[in-house]
Amino acid sequence: MPELSGILPAVKSMKEFDKLLESDHKYIILLETRLSQLPSMASYARKANKKLIVHVDLVQGLKTDEYGMEFLIRVIKVDGIISTRGNAIAIAKKNNLIAIQRLFLLDSHALEHNLKIINNVQPDYIEVLPGLIPKIIQEVNRATNIPVIAGGLIRNEEDIEAAYEGGAIAVTTSNHSLVWE
């Protein structure tokens, strides 16, 4: 499994994607896109020696069942996925993709429920949102022994440092000032 670290840029538009193809970032996380755009985006990413991680829950026109995942794996040939769905994570792991389980921390019940799912599917990484709660990042890491990525509401260098101090191994952000410094 590749080791993710540092800032992982998350893009929402073709303009941002094009800019990242020219950057030093090794990984590109696709957030909001359409199914019809994925083949060309994956091709451009490969030509630029970038690894493509797709947030499968946010791809318009894609169903995250076994057939949708098969399309991503065999046709698009993504390097990894992000999802809140355990079935998508399990399929990604079975096919040796980077599997990142996205975890929304709304309350303690959501935390407990998601920890059960995570312990069943054993993703490679857990993305905790919002990523501004260092104590919770530590708790998730201790409860699962899975590397944690902080995401959501990361607005400045202090937020990144707080996430790292909490034990995050990487930070996802779409904040331009943090991605293209």
Automatic annotation (TrEMBL):
The record ties this protein, via Pfam families, to: G3P_antiterm
**Which SUPFAM superfamilies does this one have?**
GlpP-like
What does the record give under GO molecular function?
A: RNA binding; transcription antitermination factor activity, RNA binding
Q: Name one GO biological process term.
A: glycerol metabolic process
The record's keywords, sorted A to Z, are: Glycerol metabolism, RNA-binding, Transcription, Transcription regulation
Q: Which portions of this protein are annotated as coiled-coil regions? A: none
Read off the InterPro entries from this record.
Aldolase_TIM, GlpP
What this protein is reported to do is described as: Regulates expression of the glpD operon. In the presence of glycerol 3-phosphate (G3P) causes antitermination of transcription of glpD at the inverted repeat of the leader region to enhance its transcription. Binds and stabilizes glpD leader mRNA.
Question: Know the name of this protein?
Answer: Glycerol uptake operon antiterminator regulatory protein
What is the source species? Bacillus salacetis
Starting at the broadest rank, the lineage of the source organism is:
Bacteria, Bacillati, Bacillota, Bacilli, Bacillales
